């Protein structure tokens, strides 16, 4: 789902809200998550998951075009850990599908 699809879905589910207001809400949420990660903070959304940053150590990489060794500096990268409720909802259809496949065999 893209950002515009999310906005369209929210607009359809909430006809009492104006489209510009929904766009502002979605943009504000993403901006706040991004700003918190840039500050080094952790963002936890109960039932969904937690966003944080992890540090990658400096290393020697390779230029894929020339094969030349290149020093890659340390950097912070975003990390997402899904919450228990999200993992359960994602895996529930797979469990039903595997049960159907087992019973059909």
* DSSP summary, beta strand count: 5
Label the overall shape: extended
* CATH-derived architecture: Irregular
Rg computed from alpha carbons, rounded to a whole number of angstroms: 21 Å
Helix content bin: 40-55%
What would CATH call the homologous superfamily?
A: IHF-like DNA-binding proteins
If you average the pLDDT, what whole number results? 91
Strand order of the largest sheet: 1-2-5
Series of H and E elements: HHEEEEEH
For the termini, the CA-CA separation is 34 Å
Largest beta sheet, briefly? 3 strands, antiparallel
Write down the domain tally: 1
CATH topology: HU Protein, Chain A
Protein name: Integration host factor subunit beta
Subunit structure: Heterodimer of an alpha and a beta chain.
Keywords: DNA recombination, DNA-binding, Transcription, Transcription regulation, Translation regulation
InterPro entries: Hist_DNA-bd (IPR000119), Histone-like_DNA-bd_CS (IPR020816), IHF-like_DNA-bd_dom_sf (IPR010992), IHF_beta (IPR005685)
Fold and architecture overview:
By secondary structure, this protein is α+β, with helices and mostly antiparallel strands. It has one domain (3-104): Irregular (HU Protein, Chain A), CATH 4.10.520.10. The chain has three helices and five strands; from the N terminus they run ααβββββα. The protein has helices at 3-13, 19-39, 84-104, and strands at 43-45, 49-56, 59-62, 69-72, 75-82. The strands form two sheets. A three-stranded antiparallel β-sheet has the order 1-2-5. The protein has a two-stranded antiparallel sheet with strand order 3-4. A hairpin with a 6-residue loop joins strand 3 (59-62) and strand 4 (69-72). Helix 1 crosses helix 2. The mean pLDDT is 91. InterPro entries: Hist_DNA-bd, Histone-like_DNA-bd_CS, IHF-like_DNA-bd_dom_sf, IHF_beta.
């Amino acid at each position: 789902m893209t950002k515009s699809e999310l906005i369209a879905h929210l607009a359809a589910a909430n006809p009492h809200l104006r489209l510009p207001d929904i766009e502002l809400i979605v943009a504000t949420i993403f901006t706040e998550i991004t700003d918190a990660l840039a500050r080094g903070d952790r963002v936890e959304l109960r039932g969904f998951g937690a966003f944080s940053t992890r540090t990658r150590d400096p290393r020697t990489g390779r230029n894929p075009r020339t094969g030349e060794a290149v020093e890659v500096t340390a950097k912070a990268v975003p990390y997402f850990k899904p919450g228990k409720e999200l993992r359960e909802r994602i895996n529930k259809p797979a469990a039903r599908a595997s049960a159907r496949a087992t019973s059909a065999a």
